[in-house]
Amino acid sequence: MDGEIQLISDGEGLAIIGDPADVDRFLAAEGLPSKDLGLRRLRSAFGNGAAAAQAGSEIAANSGRWVKLTRESAQLTKKYGLRKSSKTGLSTGAVKGHNGQIKGFVEFVKGPRALLTSPAALAGAAGIMAQLAMQQAMDEITDYLATIDEKVDDVLRAQKDAVLARMIGVGFVIEEAMTVREKRGEVDEITWSKVQGAPTTIAETQAYALRQLDAIAEKLERKNKIGDIAATATESEPKVREWLAVLARSFQLQDAIAVLELDRVLDTSPEELDGHRLGLKTARQNRLEHISRSTEHLVGRMVAAAAKANDKVLLHPTKSPAVVESSNHVVAGIDAFHARLGIESGRRSSETRRWAKAAAEARDRALETGAKGVDAARSRGTETLDRAGLVKGKLSSGIAERKRRRREVTEEPSEKTE
C-alpha cells in the first residue's frame, strides 16, 4: 500500500477513502467486507466554482468504502490511532506505507493530500456513513421479520385501529421513494413531498404497539393464581411476537425516512448536514431507549411469572412448566428483537423445574421429617413406658401396704382375747 488512505469512524461504521487499489489492498489485508461509500454524492457539499471542480476531480479519482463496525473492525480505530473530534464526534486519521504505519492525522484542512479537507466535505461523508449504517439496520430488520415469519401487513390488517392500517400505505410510499432515490441518486422535491407526512403515522403506530406490550405486562402482573398466570402467559406469547414485528417494521420505516432526510439536506442545505445528522442520531437513540424500557418491563414480568411458577411446580405439575416455557419463548423473542435493533440485553432463560425433581425434593423432606418424627415417637414412647412402670410400681407398693395394714387390724383382737 504505497499511497495514503483516509480513515473516518462515526462509532457505527468506518469509511476508507483513497486510491481504489490502495483501498482494496487495505481491506484485503484487514479481511473486512465493505460497501461502496458513494463519494460522488459529496460534490454538492463543496459548492460551486473552481474549488468544486477540483474537489470533483479528486472524488472521481478516489474510492470510498464503508465497513460496519463490529468487535473486530472497531479495533482498527485503536490500531491506527484515530483521533476523535469533540465537535463532530468523528474519529479521523490517515495510513500510509507497506507496513500500515501512521503518516499523519487528518483534521479538516490538515494532512498530506487528504481527500476530505473541509468541514463541509467531512460532514457530507459522515452523513453518508449514517445513511449506510441505517440501511444496514433496515436490512437486518428485514432478515429478522423473515426469521420469525411474521407478515406485518397481515398483523396490521387484523387490527381495527385506523392508525395501524394507515402504516401499510405509508410503507408502500416510503419503499417507492427509496427505489427512486436508488435509481436517481438523489431525493427530488416531488419524491420528498410524498413522504413528508409519514413520520407522524409511523410514530403513532409505534406508540400503539408499545402500549399493547405494556398492557400485556400489566395484565400478567395482576395475576396471582398459577392457573390464571398460565393462561395469560400462553395467550401473550403470540401477541408479543406480533407486536414486536410491528415495532420492528415501524423502526425500519423511521430509518428509511432518516435516510431520505439526509439526502434532502445534503442537496439543499449541506451546511446544516452535520447538525441534522447529530439530531437524527439522538432521536434514534431516544426511540431505542423508549422501546427498551417497555420490552424490558415485559421481560421482568415474564421472568417473575416463571419464578412464581417454579415455586408452585409441586402443586401444579402441568401448568407451572407451561408458564416457564411461554416465558422463555417471550424472553428469547425479545432478545432476538433487541439484537436486530442494536439494544444490548443479556437475559438468561428460566430453567423449568421438573416434576420429578420437585417431587424428589419433597420426598426427601418428608422422609427427613418422618425420621425425626419416628425418633421423637420412640423417645416419647420410652418416656411413657418409664412413667407407666413408675406408676405401676407405686401402685403395687400402695396395694401391698394397704393389705399389710388390713392384716394387722384383723390380728389385733385375737391377741387380746387370748
Automatic annotation (TrEMBL):
Domain of life: Bacteria
Region (Disordered): 370-418
Basic and acidic residues biased stretches: 375-386, 408-418
Protein name: Uncharacterized protein
Lineage: Bacteria, Bacillati, Actinomycetota, Actinomycetes, Streptosporangiales
